[in-house]
Specification:
The chain has 170 residues and is α/β, with parallel strands linked by helices. Helices cover 44% and strands 14% of the residues.
């Protein structure tokens, strides 16, 4: 099983992803690590990424998802996956891939971003992330969680809502 944690920058993908992967006993993949240096520099300079910037990044993540599924490995992946077209690349018709939308208000996430230092994601890009965000539809079968709750509470909620429910083993 692959769990993709999606949402705008600052929603907690990395924190929740690390905790969830520990609970599930599987690997954690940080989507940011798949960005090529040019994407990182663009964001560092305050310029939002375009679809053309994102396609190779998304395909690289999807390639690893396919590799993990073929090997029978489980993983939690943190990836903004802001548009349906991006999620189509990552999830598509793959059985065993589950989408979790970490959802929060602009004000909450802005506060989190101003309180942290990120290598290349300035708080000035948050508006563009919210503008780009296409909330997942019912057809995508997302698990949607409100990030106003503490991280450990969110992990428990996700665990209970994943196939197999609370205390499940992969």
């Amino acid at each position: 099983m692959i769990v993709i944690l999606m949402g705008v920058s600052g929603c907690g993908k990395s924190v929740i992803g690390n905790l969830l992967s520990q609970r599930l006993g599987c690997q954690f993949a940080e989507g940011d690590s798949y960005h090529p240096p040019a994407n990182r520099e663009k964001m560092r300079g305050g310029t939002p990424l375009t679809d053309e910037d994102r396609w190779p990044w998304l395909r690289a993540i999807a390639s690893d998802i396919d590799r993990w599924l073929a090997a029978g490995s489980d993983a939690v992946v943190a990836c903004s996956a802001l548009k349906k077209a991006y999620r189509d690349i990552l999830v598509g018709s793959r059985a065993g891939v589950h989408l979790v939308h970490l959802k929060g208000s602009y004000e909450l996430i802005y506060g989190r971003l101003t309180a942290r230092k990120h290598e290349y994601m300035p708080v000035t890009l948050l508006k563009s992330q919210f503008a780009t965000l296409e909330e997942p539809t019912a057809e995508e079968r997302p698990i949607v969680v409100d990030i106003a709750e503490p991280a450990d509470v969110l992990v428990e909620e996700i665990m209970t809502r994943l196939p197999g429910g609370k205390g499940r083993t992969l």
